[in-house]
Amino acid sequence: MFGYYFDLALRSLKRNPVLTALMVLAIGLGIGASMTMVTVLHVMSGDPLPGRSGQLYYPQLDPLPLKYQQSAYGPDPRLNFTWPDAMALVAAHRAERQAAMAGGALLVRPARTGLRPFYVDGRYATADFFAMFGVPFLRGQGWSAAEDDGRARVVVLGDTLSRKLFGTSDSVGRMVRFGDADLRVIGVTADWHPQPMFYADASSKAFGEADQFFLPLATAMDLKFDANSNQSSWASIEGDIMKSPNLTWLQVWVQLKDPAQIAAYRQFLSDYSAQQKALGRFERPPSHARLYGLMDWLGRQNLVSADVRLQLWLALGFLLVCMTNIVALLLAKFLRRSGEVSVRRALGARRRDIFLQFGIESAVIGLAGGVLGLGIAQLGLWSVRHRPDDYAHLAQMDFSMLVGTFVLAVVASVLAGLLPAWRACRVAPALQLKTL
Amino acid sequence: MQWRPILSSLRHHKLTALLLMLQVALTCAIVCNVVFMIVNRVEQVSLPSGVDEAGLSMLVSETIDKHENKRARHAADLAGLSKIPGVTAAVAVDTLPLGRDESSYGTCASAEDMATAIAAHSMMRGGLCVQPAVYGGTPGELGVLGLHLAAGRDFRTDEYVAGADEHVAGADVPVAILSRALAERLYPGKNALGQSIYTGGSKPIRVIGIVDTLLRPQLREAGVNQYAMLFPMLPNDGEVTYLLRSAPQDRERVLRMAAAKLEQLSPERIIPAGGMRTYTQMREAYFQRDTTMIGLLLASGLGLLFVTALGITGLANFWVQQRRRSIGIRRAIGASRGDILRYFQTENFLIVSGGIALGLLLAIMLNLVLMKHYELPRLPLYYLPIGALALWLLGQLAVLGPALRAAAVPPVVATRSV
User: Fold this and answer.
1) Residue A374: inside a domain, yes or no?
2) Is the dihedral angle over the CA atoms A320, A323, A325, A328 positive or is it negative?
């Protein structure tokens, strides 16, 4: 029966090739535009560390004065930590693992001749960084907490930087000149580039360049390396600026295994805030301390720009108009075949047979539209990849999006065919015969 | 025109006609808003910067020698750069209109306003003070940028002070040149020339000049986009932008020669990727997202109109085929070709009008949603009649083919069985 209806559908579609082409084109355009934008959104809101993200949390404290007023243009200072708070959280060891970190761009002076000095992005962090995020090592390993304390002059390189500087991934033991300091390579990581860069400062580019080096935070402080995260202060600063309790610039991530640990950590943050308030440093209530899961945290950053969201709505609006178009055309087409339906009904076809017949005809259009839409979406994604935006390189369809395109196309066209098919199967068997 | 037969015939195709109406309504609503967004973006992209953009090129240079005397370096570089054939003038600046890097100062019109603002812990509260962007550069910046001085004078060389570097805070500048928009905001109804502005420095800053137009490095909302001023402040940072003026056709060559020149003057520097470009390129890069958006909006607006026109034509074709017999009968009993043509045109007009009525309502609702979520301004009402007219026209054009085919149906069809 299915094969027969499929055959009928093809014959019917062939009878009106121009109209069929128009319907396929309309659904193809609508699906293509929508899937382009759905894919962009899908890759932008993806999980940066699948398998690990469920255990990673971002704490937040509120060291701001009561009367502080948030500017409409600047980032919220509470997105980051002050040096004393970050160090206190790391030293407290209340989580499974915890690390404080900040991004920095350093000048590298290659020893190899023929290579000019260049700036490279990297991260200053405390020891747990590698184990907590599961950074894969090719050679050597990260540093220990003891080396953190000792401000060891060591560095971990990304594979790309190691190859650029030494022509090999095996650079452990070699020395690299960062700024004015010589650091010993103790490990080389495989190129590690979570998308988005969830652990970076929330005001920096979320889909920016990968970190190419990692070095102990205390060492970076000792060497007076600049951090490139946003630095917000709300009071005058005395002494060492970066260690001031009135300047936020660090990020802190913690790993928590189960709900009990999460609850305990929340309590710890609250207690810490209460203690700081008692000391007169914090002014706001301890209830302002927060703990966010990784995906929740990313959701709060509005990584998807207003323009991208607008583009998605535009594409979906376009699909809606295309769908209305197809419903009207299918309705006219099916009703025009009332005579044929009448004959089939008079010969014993049930309503559901008629419904199925027209349903299959709509699905065939949808399938063809899906193929066209897939092509158009690839074209759309190709054009997105050529935008100079930081997320552009991510715009690739994965398998789930590929399947999604077809599902959307067929579902859309079957939905579009539903009303026309229903109307067609309600044609009375005899009445139409008379007019023939 | 006979409306009744049209209406009673439409009643037979209620659902189809309604669907077509819905499609026209959705198209009308979306296209009105899309056109409005296009107009907004085009306005944004074509904002005048105040700079004479055609002959400007820029080169960013970043020193890697910590102990270098930056101002001496800049002076030596500038001397070398201005000798390049084709370069008519060169200055060093800290940032540029549409250059993205912005330093801004809380600025008040009087010392009392400043005191109030400080007491309130907010520069913006009560609208007393504003946060204009500040441009610093070596003498001649005004001329190289090509800014138009509406009143007052340029800085004198003895008024220049060194900007801040990583070790020392910059000295207070004695004078400033304001954009007209900033001057009028700070001193409404008064001549700003000779007034003193307060930025929290130890001394007030006297206004000695006003330029017509000057955009900030980073645009905000329309009202404050031109809150900007020039300080006689020499760049003193490791990273500096050299601004070169030349004939527009010389820009590429001048940039190449300038990069080579800088390299020759001191190799202890980095010219970052993208640090070598013309002002036109910088402007295009600044507005790249808007231009992408304009392209997408245009494509989707045209696509919508196209799909709707196709829908109208396809449906009209069906109806013509379906009604061949009755058209033949009407022709046989005396209807002219014109009658048949007008019949289909009127039918289309009715359906499209219904769609437009609903569509205009939807357009306003959609605009309200966009205003809430995307900071879009209110849709001016004159967009509505224009949108309606466009859809009527589109409908008539789309139905013309099928209607002409209907008019061509010969009366003899009436005598044949289908």
Assistant:
1) yes
2) negative
Q: Do B418 and A436 touch (CB under 8 A)?
A: yes
User: In this predicted structure, what is the pLDDT of residue A415?
Assistant: 84
B15: chain A residues, CB-CB within 8 Å: 331, 419, 423
- What is the token pair recorded at A381? 């994604």
Under 8 Å between Cβ of B341 and B396: no
Closest partner residue to B121 among A67, A325, A331, by Cβ? A67
- Model confidence pTM above 0.95: no
Backbone angles phi, psi at A368, to 5 degrees: -60, -40
Instruction: Show the domain range for A94.
Output: 75-254
Q: SS3 sequence, B88-112? A: EEEEEECCCCCCCCCCECCEECCHH
Question: For A389, which residue in chain B has the nearest alpha carbon?
Answer: B289
Identify the residue among B16, B68, B225, B347 best suited for mutation to test binding to A, counting A beta carbons within 10 A and taking the highest. Answer: B16
CB-based contact A307 B293, cutoff 8 Å = yes
Tell whether A111 is within 8 A of chain B (Cβ): no
Contacts with A116 from chain B: Cβ below 8 Å = 270
Q: How many CB pairs under 8 A join A and B?
A: 104
The reply to whether A352 and A428 lie within a common domain is yes
Same domain, A126 and A241: yes
Residue A298, domain member (yes or no): no
Same domain, A411 and A320: yes
| Per-residue tokens: B104 | 């801004």
> Quick one: A183 and A317 in the same domain?
no
Is A307 at the interface with chain B, CB within 8 A? Answer: yes
Q: Which two tokens stand for residue A117?
A: 């000095």
Q: Are strands A118-125 and A97-109 parallel, antiparallel or unpaired?
A: antiparallel
Q: Which pLDDT band holds residue B122 (cuts at 50, 70, 90)?
A: low
Which residues, other chains included, contact B246 with Cβ-Cβ below 8 Å and sequence gap of 6+? B55, B57, B86, B87, B88, B254
Place of tokens 């202060």: A233
Whether the complex's predicted ipTM surpasses the cut of 0.90? no
Q: pLDDT tens digits, residue range A134-145?
A: 999 999 999 999
CA distance A128 to chain B (A): 32
What's the sign of the alpha-carbon dihedral B46, B47, B52, B56? negative
Q: Sorting pLDDT into bands at 50, 70 and 90, what band is A68?
A: confident
Per DSSP, B48 falls in state -
Helix, strand or coil, per DSSP, at residue B270: strand
Q: How far apart are the first and last CA of chain A?
A: 27
Calpha distance B174→B194 (Å, rounded): 12
